[in-house]
Structure prediction request, 527 residues.
Amino acid sequence: MTTTTTTAATAPVLAPVTAPAARRRRRSLAPGRRLPASRLVGPALLLAVWAAASAAGRLDPGAVPAPWTVLRTGVHLWTDGTLTTDILTSLQRAGAGFAIGLTAGVVLALVSGLSRVGEALIDGSVQLNRAIPTLGLIPLFILWLGIGETFKIAIIAIVVYIPIYLNTHAALSGIDHRFVELAEVQGLSRLAFVRQIVIPGALPGFFVGLRLGVTGSWLGLVVLEQINATSGLGYLMFQAQNYGQSDVILVGLLVYGVFGLVSDSAVRIVERRVLSWRRTLSN
Amino acid sequence: MAPHTEQLTRPAVSLRGLTRSFDGRTVLDGIDLEIPAGQFTALLGHSGSGKSTLLRAVAGLDHEVTGSGELVAPERVSVVFQDSRLLPWRRVLDNVLLGTDGKEAAAKGREALAEVGLAGRERSWPGELSGGEAQRAALARSLVREPELLLADEPFGALDALTRIRMHGLLRELWERHRPSVLLVTHDVNEAIVLADRVLVLEGGRIGLDLTIDRPHPRSYSDPLLGEYRERLLAALGVTEDHQ
Ligand SMILES: Nc1ncnc2c1ncn2[C@@H]1O[C@H](COP(=O)(O)OP(=O)(O)OP(=O)(O)O)[C@@H](O)[C@H]1O
Ligand SMILES: [Mg+2]
Prediction:
């Protein structure tokens, strides 16, 4: 977006009297320049309304505690160590599940995207797996793996691997036929073809899957911790529900929110780095 | 790049009874053709006459096409497509170097880019090039391999008229320097006449006309002596002057 700086003010001085009126730039239909820190405006306003309503005593502190109460509870939980332990437990679960899901998704997509035998063995099974809502597997997995950490990590890994597999596989098998021809003409070996054309070409699809996978890992975590809580952030919130501590629940939600935001931004930054060639097309 | 010193006695391309068909429909019907090493040949024909089919056969790109016949083509063949076909995720120089390796490759790549007038654009992304620049990069990519045979399927088809004229000059200049055999597929009678020393017309699955154009280079688009060739080619293509 550029600002419109027409020379309408100076042009008539130089132009002969009969000259047509200085040409105006057309009115731009785009929404225009972004307000500074525009994303923060809405949340800040919400926070202000919340604080004002609390201060005016219009909110039931049992249901919606004041922002400063939530903050104080957060600091308190942090300093006595409860929150840190719970956060670490949750992060370990999500991290382990995500790492396994990511590896499995990428490896399976490569095997099935690059060989016909692999495709015959893997693709159908994954499509079948996808049709079953993963969270529906929880009872079965508890029977198989017990109610410990293993089943939680397994469920998160499944939630993560599916979108990564699907998007990476679609990108790998959807490689532009013209580039296959080019590789043949340039005499590329099969390995060079895969490394220099297939994989870079599939990266955009992989990143779509990765972002869905990251979101999925947090979703899986929340569900697992809320219904099978024995430790972790969800457990903290579950306990708080029993004791009617809505401020603790809000602290937990806040931490989940920060997890989600930070991980999504991290993926975006990596994506922008790796796919830097794409920026030239989008602008 | 060392100039090509192939002996003119051995043909670069030799086709005997080349036949290709799609779903029982014969597109190439027993083509016999020899292209001497170092000759600049253009191939004309109606849309759908099988020009691309012939070119792809010579390039060895028609794996799944039914056909028969004998085909001899050199070891080092380069193809320039109608689209520049640059990989958007590789910088221009890396695109030019696709499929080459070794230490001198990068230097050769730079040299080839300089030859097509793209010195200084080595680190650009293909998305940053104009259509003509992208096509020049594709030309550089085909040159780096020092081809004995350069196949081009309407390489300038997507360019504007002005850029196309510039590219004609460039292609002819590059050919004079490196002397590969060239088979240039085109729709454009004038392009064929101005560039090539021999023009073939593909008609009914066979070479309907084989015309040697014996005029010095560089040729002018308005050379009246070329008009005769133009008329003969247009007649072979079934176009009479009042259709123009
Ligand atoms: N893969 C294919 N499958 C089926 N038919 C094909 C295939 N490729 C080409 N053909 C047919 O073969 C005929 C010749 O096609 P070809 O692409 O060689 O024509 P062309 O002379 O290059 O035309 P143009 O000038 O429009 O590029 C056409 O009738 C086309 O429909
Ligand atoms: Mg064609």
Observations:
- The interface with chain B takes residues 178-179, 181-188, 192, 196-197, 200-201, 203, 275, 277-278, 280-281 of chain A (CB under 8 Å).
